[in-house]
Structure formats: structure tokens, C-alpha cells
Fold:
Amino acid sequence: MGLLRFSSLSALLLLVPLLGCGRGNDALQLPPNARILHLASLDDIPTLDPAAGYDTASWTFEQMIFDTLVRYSDAGVDLVPDLATSWQESADARTFTFHLRRNATFTNGRAVTSADLRYEIERVLTPATRSKGIEYYRDIIGAEAFVAGRASTVSGIETPDPWTIIFHLAAADPIFLDKLAMPFAAAVPREAAQKWGDDFSRHVIGSGPFMLRQWRSGQQIVLVRNPHYFDPSLPRLDAIVMQLGVDPELEWLKFQAGDLDISAIPPAEFPYVMKTPRLRNLTLHITTLSTDYLGMNCRMKPFDDVRVRQAFNYAIRKPKLIAILNGRGVAASGILPPGLPGYDPGIRGYPFDPAKARALLEAAGVGRNFAPTLWLRADQQEITLAESVQQDLAQVGVHLILKPVAWSALLEAIRQPHTVEFFSLGWEADFPDPQNFLEVLFARRQWGSNNDSFYANPRVDQLLDEAAPLSDRARRYALYDEAQQLILGDAPWVVLYYPVTYVIRQPWVHNYILNPLRPTRFDRVWLAPHPHETP
Amino acid sequence: MHFTRGSIRAFASVISARLKPNLMEVAGALMVALLAATAIGAPYLAPYDPAAAVANSFGDPAPPSRAFPLGTDELGRDVLSRLIWGARISLEVGLAAMAVTLAIGVIVGLLAGFFGGLTDFVLMRLTDIMLSFPTLLLAMAFVTVLHPSLLTILLVIGLVSWTGVARVVRAETLSLAQRDFVTAARSLGAGPARLIAIHILPNVMPLIVVMAVLGTSSTLLLDAGLSFLGLGVPPPTPSWGRMIEEATTYFRTAPWLAVFPGLAIFSAVLGFNLLGYGYLRRTAPRRSL
Structure:
């Protein structure tokens, strides 16, 4: 991998002068003294069509070009108004009514109405669109009939007037609002989407703070300010220019030269950045809504014995892992990460206690020759962390064998019963709700799907089923907390840490705010005068 | 024919020059001996357990100090102890892979050179095909399919590096097979097995020794390369290539992590090369491999 990376780096160095002129934007018709945010990325943007995109890169731009009814606040996972100015949720969490703002227009000049929101959800539900978002809206009444082609519209979506939209659900869904905050449910003008068809991604028209000016695949993508955005004070940038096909190492060099305003930090530079106060002060970080863990297969010997699983929990030194990560993680005590609604700061987790671990292993009758195999992704950092776990387990008489495999092979293997006894994985939330962790990862019916530790506890299943339809947050989170405590006691996982993401920005970049769940929004970002400005 | 005194003296000086090891050879032999001694004596020489955390330098490798002459790495392990144990792994892999290389290369070379004709054609085209693959890429593909372990690594290195040996052994066999003593043995009724084993192989032997010594340095390098790419002997077994790979993260803040294993690989390869070329220069001044 190292070799491939170096060769592609040199190839890029040759290419860049040819693409070049990143700063001379004559063809882009930007005004002189335009305030431009310069970014770079290795991979091209997969799509800008909100029905199609389901990845960070696509969403970064989709959420700037399109508006949804509600969206997450800049720094948190609380929902704030976007196209909707107010909304009501019925007590049974089955009816949702939204009132739309009247001053939103698409960049083709037409007003945004409730019909545009209905159109996009129906477009996502149309099988021919092949949208990955289709699953999220099947609970709307009439959606199944529409998907099957038996109805021309979704009967559960009501648009009594251009400024009101009502959703009726077949079953209670307390996280339906979160599903409407996904770009799949953005307002899309029918006339543009139908005119361009599959090519809509290249000719997107939305109502968001920015609009697409230029997109040359593998070279650069340029978004410019939407002068008709419903909030006239936004956005505060004139344009966003992202160079594509830029290797992470090159991105870092360009950042250091002042050509980029924001950059990721390559792993090999991270310790250096953190040891250099000038650079460290420019970093931003956020604890993402994810948990990295070691899973144990509760159906395979000797991990079917809860004492063995608990012993592993006592044996592993989490602060050491955090030190090895140079602080790119927070030691975990529970399954739910901090920042996730329903997180319980009272959970203490298992302390580091090798004596207790040895006693538990002895009580479980695990002999001196216990040599389990840890499956993990073949990645340098993963292997280093696993070597640390190997050291810790050696202290309690367990000789861990490491098995680094390709990512896809790992995902395939852990879904097979009786195959992987011990594995290293992480889970990232799609929605800010405990259900997204506890039910998806520990329910009995998720065996062979996401319940990779083949864990089952009837009482936990009962609690999960009881909590799922509740829209009373306090009650809902209390039930999930009870389930979490039971799962931690049964110890199918060793929770390791909550990953922390770092980026670095130039001193003149302001309001660049990281979000635990979504890409950063650019609408409030502004740039102070600086020496690298466009001449 | 009568020898003059002068010509006898000249002959004697040629003989003694051929028997007296040259400087290259001595230096190489010393380096290889040092490497072998380190590898064999690893349990006694290494001050610490190479896999255990012996210092509190997690995530922040410590520079060389009195207690840890080459520093400690990001997992708190002693770099000197890992380097010493790494010598064992490197030498094991290097020599065992060389044995596999020789086994395949010598057999293919002898058969092709001795029998000629169709056998020669098939075996040599096979060799050409193997040669046309980039060695490292082929080794990576093999290791990925077979999963890395000590055994697979040395088998794979052997499998991808036998072609050079096969070609040289074939060329030598071809010329030996035409010589009078082989013709004489053949006319006395010796079969192919006897001809190859008793008459040809011993005469190819010096060449094989040189190729083995020189080849060991390239198997060492290939092993280091595979380890660097994460395809070497699995952790926590210390290997020099892996040590360099792990050090890349800390290259700017803790360069000694990469420098010492780099020097170790350098000196091991240099040692084998000096020994091999020195021997070659003494025994066959005009032959080049």
C-alpha cells in the first residue's frame, strides 16, 4: 500500500500543474475579491442527486444545495427548522404535520411548495430510482402500494395547501423526523429532475445556500453562493472550490503551503501536529456517534461462558489504547457514545483489573493454553491497537493470535455462525437514537445480520420491543438504558473507545463547526482577510 | 613438458591467491557471523521480552536512554530487544526461503540442462513466464491468498525467486554435459540419475554456494518488503520490515524507530553480498552472475 501511495503521489504532482490554476477562476465568473473556501479530496463526489447519495462526500454537497424540512443544528443532533418553520407530532408518533416557510425558492426562480417534498419522497420510493433511502419511508401509509406500482401516489402523504405537508404512518416511528432530515427527503423540483433523468446529478437545482457552478469529474467541483437563499444573510462565502483526486499527503502539503483552508491530518503527521503548538492550535475535533469494540461470539466455546467474556473486559487497558491513538478516542464505558440522546454518564463499565480477570478465567476452567484468534481489518492502526490488546491478554495468560483480513472478508465472516470467535469492529450511528445501537446490534432477530456476537437475552429483546414505539423520550431512554445495563452485564463486547475525528483549518477560517453525525455545513463559515486570498 | 622454476612460482602464486580470502570476503563473513550469533543468542542477548510493554511510552515513543539504548516504541516495547529477535526471524526466513529457492532452481536447472530438447524448452519457458512477473507483486498475491505465516512467507519467497538459480544451473549443466568425463561415464553405462548426481552436481556446487549466499540477501530484502507491506510474519513476532512500517507514523517525531531496523537490514544484506561477491572474485575472477 505504501508503494502504491507513493507512486500515485508522484503522478499527482505531475498532473497538478496541468489542472492547476485553482486560484485563477476566470471561467467560473467569480467576482474579484470573492471569498472562496478551498478544499481537497482524493475521491470524486459519487453523486449530487439526493435520491442517490448515501455517503459523506455526496452529503457534504447535497446538504448545501438542497433543503430538507428539518435538519440537525450545526454542532449537535437536535433538529432545527429548515424548510419547515414549525411542526407537530401526534402523541402516538404516527402523524407528522409540517408548516413550510413561504420565502424559499429554487434557483430556477420557482417557489418551494409541499408538492416538491412529496415528489422527492415518491421518487425515492419508485423502485426504478434504485434509491438506497427506500427503506426509510416504507412505513408511510400507502408506501407499499406505491412501491408495488398499485398506486400512483402515496396516500399517506397529504398536501392540503402549498405550505402544509402531513405524513401518516402505518406504525409508530419516534425517529421519523430524523429520517426526514436525511437528504433523501429534500425538496427537489419535478421539472428539473424529470428533464435530466439520470443526469440530474450533473444539473442539480435546489433551494439551499449554494448552487453547483462547475463539476469536472476527478478535477474539481465548484459551488457558488445562492443569491436567492431564504436567509439573505447566508451564506457568508462566495464559493467553495474542492480539488478532486488529491492524495491525503498532497492535501496536507497544500494545506501547509496555504493553498487549502481545511485539511484532514494524515496518520503519519498526527503525532507531529500534536507536538507542534502552532499546528495543534489549528485543529478541531469531535467525538463521533460511534463505538469501537471487541466482539465475542457468545455461541462459541469458551466465549459462551459469561465469566470468560467478563474476564476479557477486566483485562484490557483502555487508557493505553487512547495513548496509542494519540488522543483520537475517548475511553468507553458503555455501548452508547456520549452525545447520543439516551447516553447514560452514570455507567462506569469494567475497571482494569487483571487479578480479577485471571480469577474469572480460572473459575471458568480456561487453561493456560487458551489461544483465541482475533479477526481484524488489515490496517496498520488496527493492528497496532490489537497488539496492545495482545500484550494485555498475555498478562492474564491468554495468548492472542491476530488475524488481519480484508474489510469485506471480515464483514462476510462475522455474519456466519460459529466462524469468528473474537473480532474488532466499530459501529457508527445513522440516527441519534439508542435503538440504532441496541436493537440493531443485540436483538435476537439480528443474528446473521448485525448481531455479530450472536448475543441473545429474552429480557433485553422484551425491553427493546417495548421501547421502540415510544415517543415519550424520558420513558424511551429509561428502557433503553435498562437494556444497555443488562447487555453490559452479559458482556458480549469489550467496549474500547469512542473515536474522535480531527481536522485542521487555517487561522483565518471561522465558524467551521464539526457535527457528530453529519458533514460540516458551510453556510455560516466565513474567512478573515489573509495572505493567500485570491488576487 | 618441463616446468621452469618461474612458471612453477607463478602457478603457486595463482593457487595461493585463490585460497587466500580477500578483504570483501572477510568483512562479509564477519558481518554474517555477527548476524548468526545475534540470531542464535537472541534469548540471552535481548535485555527484554520483545513483545511486552516494558516502558510507559504508549503513543509517544521514547528516545534512546540508558535503560533502553535504542529507545522504546509506541507500544512501550524495547527497540533493541525487538531488533535482536528480529535478526532471528530475518535469518530464519532468509535461509529457509533460500533453501526452497535452491531446491526448485537446482532441480529445474539440472533437468533442463541435462536432458535438453523438449524438457529444456518446457522448463525454460516456465522460467521465462515466472520471470516476467514482478517478484514483489507475485509474492504479495501469493501471500494474500495463502494468509501470512512463517511457513507461507518462506514458501512464497522461494516460489518467486528460483528462476535466476535455474538459469545459471542450466547453463553450467549444458556445458558440463558435453565434457569428456561425462561422455566417458556415459559410455561406461552410467544412467541419467548417476550422471547428474555424481558427475554434474558436484561440479555445479561451487556456483550454487555463491548463488545461495548472494540470494539470501535478496530473500532478506523481499521478506522485509513484504513485512513493510503488512504481509509478513504476523505480529507480535518482531520483524525488521514490520518495525519500519510501524515507525512510519512516528517518522517525524521518533525517527530512531525506523533508522535502527533500516540499518539492520542494510548490514545484513551488505554482509551476504560482500561474502558472496568476495568468494566469486577469488574463485572465478571473470565470471559474473
In short: Residues 1-25 of chain A have pLDDT under 50 and may be disordered. The longest helix of chain A spans residues 2-19.
